[in-house]
């Protein structure tokens, strides 16, 4: 078994990407795209004049980073650059573990040599498709502005690239400056459609078989609706691929770790704890830039809550598992409450700003969070008896919310319960808002879904103050660019963004020279993986024989005494092949009873064994090797 | 090992479906229904048969599986969990879990309210019972415990109906529940994988009927309804809140839309409207056609349907009313009493009506007539009566198709009437050659099951299995032409056919210590059992006539011999190294020993001009060895000259 990490990824929106060679088959795990690299481009300008003023002010090396230093061109998109080095035709299977993990898939499937089978959960495939369609729709704005793209755009010329500020170069060439590669023009809507035809969709825990040898099942990972971890079984053993997972998420079904128990090998690919450390550094940069940020001390809050809840919820779990203690800690509800607290904080701040006459702009790309937040905001507005409209502006808003309402099977227990009891999951997307509940009939919920900022219905219904949810979190695409330009000077308005986003660079184009952005920014960190303490408990519970960790966790594992564990482990680095031995030397074989019954065996007393000559037909089916009576001539 | 199958209900009968299957020591209860035809203890399956001695159901059953929310499949579940005390896992699909409480509550109100004489269940019991349920999604493989695996497949009968696959060790079976092999207005057709099964337990409601296209029947229904409302009549459709109501509503709503009818359609109880809410979020469980429209308009948002107020019973003008329950009692009876005497009105019977119900009486009635309600109250029935002729059950063809597709080793028929079952059993046994049974209630069947023996296999063995073993067959083109003339014209069968018949050959080693088994190739055997190789060898020290041998040196003789052999056996690989000649296992060299044990010459004195060549070979090359030896013996002088 060979494992190669192609990319460690970067947070929630850019999951890692690996290649696994197992039983003679090559599996690509996820095919993401780095959308945060869009930050090097300038959003579509309002009027074309600034471009002309942006003449190359020849080789100013210590030119400070400002709005004008961004690249004014139709953006290209950064794919996993190491994937380009692999021959596409040798990939047999692609496993998608989240909607974000398939954003780069059309680049691959449009290659005529591509012949692999792609597996994704039904919901990840659908949401992923909507996200890709939305991206293509948003990119259209650039196309309309700049016109058709040429083979080698001006900005990609060497001296152009060389004259860019260091911050942008870092993104373009990678942190190590290793190389400028993997920048592709965006796929078309037709590419997305073709790509989806090649995706085979599965339910959670549905077994699927590739070539009779590999059995693969997806189990909920809790990160986002439809996201999953994979379990791959071949006759020589089983492998569990653990991507970023959340134990008790707000919307998605919780992390189904029990189904991964007793896998021989675990490929640990949750980088969230490392990214958290990175975030901390990025934070310092942000404070250097002259923005006003509100902060909220999650740390104290969370440790207090987790203390409370580990005690409160012990009785909740009646599990006869041997590792009872561990499962209590993993499944505790503290994560859920903590995340809910964050949403409540966003809600209460939003209400405060609206009361002051400002509007709230929320460009968050996590659908689970958005759906919950819509819910919370609606309740909060109702409690305050405020008639403030909520606008969801996106080309796929309507479809996405309608879809979220018909997949109760894929949601967390709390929402499933609600569906079972009341026949509805989310308020967003309910066509008749007034019918929600008897006690709420008085207040009409003003929630509108619009495909675009310029749609006629939006213009007629528009009123401020309001709350707007819209893409894209990179601040380079979509309705958010227009709305931010409108409100960036308003000190009473609030912008809610994720901690993961590099706010300094993201908001750069919206800060006119030398003037601070007046709009307030709330940066909120959402949980996007397994915390380090929990990963330790998790692995103890899963009882694997071998674990492959990312190199970044080496130090942590040393400190935490992973050396005393029951399993062996190794580490992997980007673009480095790791050999993982099969835990079994021999593969399993089932022999039909009829066949065994007709055997004539001889006993070797000395060796305490019997031997018999065996003759039959080998059948490989559903990942099991079977020896059956052959049709002898 | 065997599968033990105990039928507690729906054996040669329709009602209280309940089958206990014991596979390799794991007991599973499939369905837990009530019989709506009985009011006494016969209503419930006889649970005491499950565990004759202990009476602890939680220990005797591994799990309960409910296929769909109809009362004859789920009705006794709250009784079994709350009164009988079963506390183990229960599995059903998401829609069944969501809708079952509505059905159960409806039934409880209807039957138990006001009667406290026997063991019953309350609203709280239903809620408590549902809490124990684990909801499953289609095709999800659930590991109930270490050995038992279950999986649901789409059955199409009602929303959320599923067939269940269960596997313990190497034995596997499918319990179909009720299913429909053709898609209807809102649900798709049943779907299942090709599985290796020992047993299929299938319903057989329509074991002998064959149905034509349902579109014809739908049109017929619409025509009857349209004629009635056009004539100013009222249409009463007594139905259960779930399933039928939504299907008919879709048909009517669609028709109203197309024909622009303005006649109101009412739903009697808020119950049905609430049920519609569920249907809206469960749209993924309906047919593909319905699913595709969900973003533009949820098809369960009926445009022309409104809820009914009791005061509207007397309102003039035509209307269509869906009233619960289906067999006409309670509210639907109230409406029926008022509307039946008017010949303009129409009553549509939607499904199976139990004996003794008014529904059953109407099925056989020919209006105008007079039927007896309870307490000797007579009612004039002048309205038209229409019996819906489409049903969400599969017909005989569907059952046959499914059984043929799955090709199990055994079939058991349940949920049907005995005479029809007997006929179907005969067809299955004769046409498909699968043994088929139709046990009565409380009967136990024993069915043999497959078992496999686990072993580990070495890589070399698996590699050897992969060696292709092609066979080439020549077919006679004349034979084909007799079989199918027209296809032969288009595409000629190739004359040479290649078939592959791979054979796996190896050795099975069983350790007596722990009965662990291992399969290896012959070559690996020695390593595995740790002994030395004993090989049988032949040897012969052969005298060769060789003039002047004393004066010549041995190596030149060697060259002569080698040259001779190479010419004689051009297709063999002859090696000549260090005075030894090797041909496969044949090894030969000069023998200088005076008394070689392999010599057959009588005299031990050295004969003039003769040298001895000592040869050895193993069994397999015996023929070759003798050929080589005879060649050497006939060595002529001419050979010498050539060198």
From TrEMBL, chain A:
<dbReference type="GO" id="GO:0032039">
    <property type="term" value="C:integrator complex"/>
</dbReference>
<keyword id="KW-0963">Cytoplasm</keyword>
<dbReference type="InterPro" id="IPR022712">
    <property type="entry name" value="Beta_Casp"/>
</dbReference>
<dbReference type="InterPro" id="IPR027074">
    <property type="entry name" value="Integrator_9su"/>
</dbReference>
<keyword id="KW-0539">Nucleus</keyword>
<dbReference type="Pfam" id="PF10996">
    <property type="entry name" value="Beta-Casp"/>
</dbReference>
<dbReference type="GO" id="GO:0005737">
    <property type="term" value="C:cytoplasm"/>
</dbReference>
<protein>
    <recommendedName>
        <fullName>Beta-Casp domain-containing protein</fullName>
    </recommendedName>
</protein>
<dbReference type="InterPro" id="IPR036866">
    <property type="entry name" value="RibonucZ/Hydroxyglut_hydro"/>
</dbReference>
<feature type="domain" description="Beta-Casp">
    <location>
        <begin position="370"/>
        <end position="507"/>
    </location>
</feature>
<dbReference type="GO" id="GO:0034472">
    <property type="term" value="P:snRNA 3'-end processing"/>
</dbReference>
UniProtKB/TrEMBL annotation, chain B:
<dbReference type="InterPro" id="IPR041897">
    <property type="entry name" value="INTS11-like_MBL-fold"/>
</dbReference>
<dbReference type="InterPro" id="IPR036866">
    <property type="entry name" value="RibonucZ/Hydroxyglut_hydro"/>
</dbReference>
<dbReference type="GO" id="GO:0004521">
    <property type="term" value="F:RNA endonuclease activity"/>
</dbReference>
<keyword id="KW-0378">Hydrolase</keyword>
<dbReference type="InterPro" id="IPR011108">
    <property type="entry name" value="RMMBL"/>
</dbReference>
<dbReference type="GO" id="GO:0016180">
    <property type="term" value="P:snRNA processing"/>
</dbReference>
<feature type="domain" description="Metallo-beta-lactamase">
    <location>
        <begin position="15"/>
        <end position="232"/>
    </location>
</feature>
<keyword id="KW-0539">Nucleus</keyword>
<dbReference type="InterPro" id="IPR050698">
    <property type="entry name" value="MBL"/>
</dbReference>
<dbReference type="Pfam" id="PF16661">
    <property type="entry name" value="Lactamase_B_6"/>
</dbReference>
<dbReference type="InterPro" id="IPR022712">
    <property type="entry name" value="Beta_Casp"/>
</dbReference>
<dbReference type="GO" id="GO:0005634">
    <property type="term" value="C:nucleus"/>
</dbReference>
<dbReference type="Pfam" id="PF07521">
    <property type="entry name" value="RMMBL"/>
</dbReference>
<dbReference type="Pfam" id="PF10996">
    <property type="entry name" value="Beta-Casp"/>
</dbReference>
<protein>
    <recommendedName>
        <fullName>Metallo-beta-lactamase domain-containing protein</fullName>
    </recommendedName>
</protein>
<feature type="domain" description="Beta-Casp">
    <location>
        <begin position="245"/>
        <end position="362"/>
    </location>
</feature>
<comment type="similarity">
    <text>Belongs to the metallo-beta-lactamase superfamily. RNA-metabolizing metallo-beta-lactamase-like family. INTS11 subfamily.</text>
</comment>
<dbReference type="GO" id="GO:0016787">
    <property type="term" value="F:hydrolase activity"/>
</dbReference>
<dbReference type="InterPro" id="IPR001279">
    <property type="entry name" value="Metallo-B-lactamas"/>
</dbReference>
């Amino acid at each position: 078994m060979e494992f190669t990490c192609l990319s460690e990824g970067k947070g929630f929106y850019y999951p890692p990407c690996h290649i696994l060679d197992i039983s003679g088959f090559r599996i690509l795990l996820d095919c993401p795209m780095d959308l945060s690299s869009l930050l090097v481009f300038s959003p579509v300008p309002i009027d074309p004049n600034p471009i002309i003023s942006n003449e190359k002010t020849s080789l100013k090396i210590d030119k400070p980073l400002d709005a004008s230093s961004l690249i004014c061109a139709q953006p290209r998109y950064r794919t996993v650059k190491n994937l380009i080095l692999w021959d596409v035709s040798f990939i047999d299977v692609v496993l998608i573990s989240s909607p974000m993990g398939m954003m780069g898939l059309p680049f691959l499937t449009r290659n005529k040599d591509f012949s692999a089978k792609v597996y994704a959960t039904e919901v990840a495939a659908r949401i992923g498709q909507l996200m890709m369609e939305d991206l293509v729709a948003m990119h259209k704005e650039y196309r309309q502005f700049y016109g058709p793209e040429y083979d080698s755009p001006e900005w990609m010329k060497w001296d152009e690239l060389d004259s860019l500020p260091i911050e942008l170069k870092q993104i373009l060439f990678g942190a190590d400056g290793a190389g400028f590669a993997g920048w592709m023009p965006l796929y078309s809507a037709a590419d997305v459609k073709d790509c989806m035809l090649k995706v085979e969709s599965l339910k959670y825990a549905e077994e699927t078989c590739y070539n009779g040898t590999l059995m693969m099942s997806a189990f909920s990972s809790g990160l986002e609706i439809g996201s999953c971890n994979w379990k791959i079984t071949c006759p020589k053993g089983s492998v569990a691929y653990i991507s970023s997972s959340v134990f008790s998420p707000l919307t998605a079904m919780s992390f189904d770790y029990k189904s991964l128990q007793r896998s021989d090998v675990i490929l640990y690919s949750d980088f969230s704890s490392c990214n958290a450390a990175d975030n901390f550094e990025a934070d310092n940069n942000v404070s250097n830039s002259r923005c006003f940020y509100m902060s909220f001390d999650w740390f104290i809050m969370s440790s207090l809550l987790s203390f409370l809840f580990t005690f409160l919820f012990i009785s909740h779990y009646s599990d006869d598992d041997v590792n009872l203690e561990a499962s209590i800690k993993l499944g505790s509800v503290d994560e859920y409450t903590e995340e809910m607290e964050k949403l409540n904080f966003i809600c209460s701040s939003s209400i405060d700003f609206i009361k002051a006459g400002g509007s709230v702009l929320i460009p968050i790309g996590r659908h689970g969070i958005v759906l919950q937040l819509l819910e919370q905001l609606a309740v909060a507005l109702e409690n305050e008896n405020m008639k403030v409209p909520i606008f969801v502006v996106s080309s796929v808003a309507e479809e996405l919310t309608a879809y979220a309402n018909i997949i109760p099977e894929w949601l967390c227990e709390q929402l499933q319960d609600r569906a079972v009891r009341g026949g509805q999951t989310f308020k967003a997307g309910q066509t008749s808002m007034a019918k929600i509940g008897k006690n709420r009939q008085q207040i009409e919920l003003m929630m509108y879904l619009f495909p675009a900022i310029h749609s006629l219905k939006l213009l007629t219904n528009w009123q401020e103050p309001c709350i707007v949810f819209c893409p894209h979190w990179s601040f380079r695409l979509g309705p958010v660019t227009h709305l931010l330009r409108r409100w960036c000077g308003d000190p009473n308005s609030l912008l809610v963004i994720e901690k993961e986003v590099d706010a300094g660079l993201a908001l750069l184009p919206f800060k006119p020279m030398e003037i601070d952005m007046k709009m307030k920014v709330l940066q909120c960190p959402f949980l996007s993986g397994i915390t380090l303490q929990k990963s330790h408990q998790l692995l103890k519970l899963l009882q694997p024989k071998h674990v492959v960790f990312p190199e970044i966790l080496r130090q942590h594992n040393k400190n935490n005494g992973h050396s005393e564990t029951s399993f062996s482990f190794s580490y992997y680095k980007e673009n480095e092949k790791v050999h993982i031995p099969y835990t079994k030397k021999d593969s399993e074989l089932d022999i039909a009873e009829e066949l065994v019954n007709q055997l004539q065996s001889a006993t070797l007393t000395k060796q305490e064994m019997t031997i018999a000559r065996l003759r039959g037909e080998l059948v490989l089916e559903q990942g099991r090797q079977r020896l059956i009576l052959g049709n002898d001539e | 090992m065997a599968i033990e199958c105990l039928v507690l209900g729906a054996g040669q009968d329709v009602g209280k479906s309940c089958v206990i299957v014991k596979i390799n020591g794991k007991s599973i209860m499939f369905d837990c229904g009530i019989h709506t035809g009985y009011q006494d203890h016969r209503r419930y399956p006889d649970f005491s048969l499950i565990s004759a001695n202990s009476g602890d159901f939680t220990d005797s059953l591994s799990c309960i599986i409910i296929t769909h929310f109809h009362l004859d499949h789920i009705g006794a579940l709250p009784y079994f969990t709350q009164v009988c005390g079963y506390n183990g896992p229960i599995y059903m699909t998401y829609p069944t879990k969501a809708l079952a409480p509505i059905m159960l509550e409806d039934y409880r109100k209807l039957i138990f309210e006001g009667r406290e004489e026997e063991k019953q269940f309350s609203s709280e019991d239903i809620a408590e019972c549902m809490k124990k349920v684990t909801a499953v999604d289609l095709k999800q493989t659930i590991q109930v415990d270490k050995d038992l695996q279950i999986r649901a497949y789409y059955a199409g009968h009602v929303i959320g109906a599923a067939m269940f696959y269960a596997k313990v060790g190497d034995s596997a079976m499918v319990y179909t529940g009720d299913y429909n092999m053709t898609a209807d207005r809102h649900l798709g057709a049943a779907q299942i994988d090709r599985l290796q099964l020992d047993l299929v337990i299938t319903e057989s409601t329509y074991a002998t009927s064959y149905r034509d296209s349902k579109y014809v029947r739908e049109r017929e229904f619409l025509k009857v309804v349209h004629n009635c409302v056009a004539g100013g009549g009222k249409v009463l459709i007594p139905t259960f809140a779930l399933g039928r109501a939504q299907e008919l509503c879709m048909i009517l709503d669609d028709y109203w839309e197309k024909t622009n009818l303005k006649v109101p359609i009412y739903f009697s109880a808020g119950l049905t409207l609430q049920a519609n809410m569920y249907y809206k979020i469960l749209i993924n469980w309906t047919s593909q056609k319905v699913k595709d429209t969900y973003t533009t308009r949820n098809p369960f948002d009926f445009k022309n349907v409104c809820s009914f107020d009791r005061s509207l019973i007397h309102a003039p003008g035509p209307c269509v009313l869906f009233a619960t329950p289906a067999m006409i009692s309670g509210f639907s009876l109230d409406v029926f009493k008022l509307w039946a005497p008017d010949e303009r009105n129409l009553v549509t019977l939607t499904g199976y009506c139990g004996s003794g119900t008014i529904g059953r009486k109407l099925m056989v009635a020919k209006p105008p007539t007079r039927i007896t309600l309870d307490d000797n109250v007579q009612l004039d029935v002048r309205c038209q009566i229409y019996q819906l002729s489409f049903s969400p059950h599969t017909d005989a063809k569907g059952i046959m198709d499914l059984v043929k597709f799955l090709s199990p080793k055994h079939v058991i028929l349940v949920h049907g009437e005995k005479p029809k079952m007997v006929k179907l059993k005969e067809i299955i046994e004769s046409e498909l050659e699968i043994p088929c049974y139709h046990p009565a209630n409380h009967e136990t069947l024993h069915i043999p099951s497959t078992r496999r023996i686990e072993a580990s296999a070495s890589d070399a063995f698996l590699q050897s299995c992969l060696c292709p073993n092609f066979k080439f067959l020549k077919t006679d083109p004349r034979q084909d032409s007799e079989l199918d003339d027209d296809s032969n014209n288009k595409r000629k069968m190739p004359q040479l056919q290649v078939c592959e018949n791979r054979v796996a050959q190896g050795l099975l080693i069983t350790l007596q210590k722990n009965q662990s088994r291992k399969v290896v190739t012959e070559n690996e055997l020695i390593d595995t059992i740790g002994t030395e190789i004993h090989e049988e060898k032949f040897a012969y020290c052969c005298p060769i006539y060789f003039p002047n041998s004393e004066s010549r040196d041995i190596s030149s003789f060697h060259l002569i011999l080698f040259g001779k052999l190479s010419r004689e056996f051009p297709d063999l690989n002859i090696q000549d190294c260090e005075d030894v000649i090797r041909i496969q296992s044949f090894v030969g060299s000069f023998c200088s020993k005076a008394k070689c044990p392999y010599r057959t010459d009588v005299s031990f004195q050295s004969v003039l001009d003769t040298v001895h060549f000592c040869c050895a070979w193993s069994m397999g090359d015996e023929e070759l060895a003798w050929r080589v030896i005879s060649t050497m013996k006939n060595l002529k002088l001419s050979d010498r000259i050539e060198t």
